[in-house]
Amino acid sequence: MAQIGTFTRSDDGAFTGMIRTLNVNIKATIRPVAKDNERGPDYRVVANGFELGACWSKAAKGTGAEYVSVKLDDPSFTAPVYATLIQGDNGEHKLIWSR
Known about the structure:
Elements: E1 2-9, E2 15-20, E3 25-32, E4 43-47, E5 50-59, E6 66-72, E7 81-87, E8 92-98
Antiparallel strand pairs: 1-2, 1-8, 2-3, 3-4, 4-5, 5-6, 6-7, 7-8
């Protein structure tokens, strides 16, 4: 697993930070959104005014630890990028890429 981002959470529930890979280095915000149906996303990822992905709040089955499941996609990507946003140290949240 590789860390591709670092975010901080604000009082309104949004996460602000950076997404960094070999081809991407961009400031992004993960904003809570109103769900339009039960399977709809809990958050949207926005960068430079463009939507870059969607996220869903989850809880680990074994521990109950909360995390955010992230799906990033863009026409410049060869395939969607799946990641997990987890709380790290000192209030920091880590975006961990998975395949």
